[in-house]
Design a protein that fits this description.
The chain has one domain: Beta Barrel (OB fold (Dihydrolipoamide Acetyltransferase, E2P)), CATH 2.40.50.200. Helices cover 19% and strands 34% of the residues. The protein is built from 2 helices and 7 strands; from the N terminus they run H-H-E-E-E-E-E-E-E. The protein has a 5-stranded mixed β-barrel. A hairpin with a 2-residue loop joins strand 2 (75-83) and strand 3 (86-93). It is elongated.
Length: 148
């Protein structure tokens, strides 16, 4: 092989390696600030509409951890910040789904649940499977594990 062929092969291998590393990475246009590239906040939109019984998937950070609600079905409760200006109470039924052990403020979560409006930002519940199997139910995704 001559020197030019070797250089071409190396260049192709490097280009292929770079493309392989970039798979699954969605670029953000350089002229669009990262903040505006975020998806809309479904919880904030539901709050504005005073929605009830609306299923949604949200992402956010744990803003505050609250005491468990032990009246009736037991619920692990925490406040999730879904956007800079919106928070929602999460009521996760720990009689039907595992508790999120070691949950900490600032931790990022993704969850699916049923939204109910209230004047404080709303509540997301049904973050667990449906024990009767009539609907798909919800979940909380945390650090590669799904709680449902």
């Amino acid at each position: 092989m001559n020197k030019r062929t070797v250089s071409t092969v190396v260049a192709l291998l490097l280009a292929g390696f770079w493309a392989w590393q970039q798979r699954g990475v969605e670029p953000v246009a350089p002229d669009v600030p990262r903040e505006s590239a975020r998806l809309p906040d479904p919880a904030a939109a539901a709050f504005a509409r005073r929605a009830r019984g609306e299923w949604m998937t949200v992402q956010g950070e744990v803003d505050r951890i609250l005491a468990d609600d032990n009246d009736g079905s037991r619920h692990q409760r925490f406040i999730l910040r879904t956007s800079e200006s919106h928070t929602v109470l999460v009521a996760h039924n720990i009689d039907l789904a595992p508790r999120l052990e070691g949950l900490r403020e600032g931790e990022g979560l993704s969850l699916r649940g049923e939204y109910e409006w209230n004047e404080r930002g709303g509540v997301l519940h049904w973050t667990h499977h449906d024990p009767q199997g009539r609907r798909s139910g919800g979940y909380i995704d945390r650090m590669g594990r799904r709680y449902q």
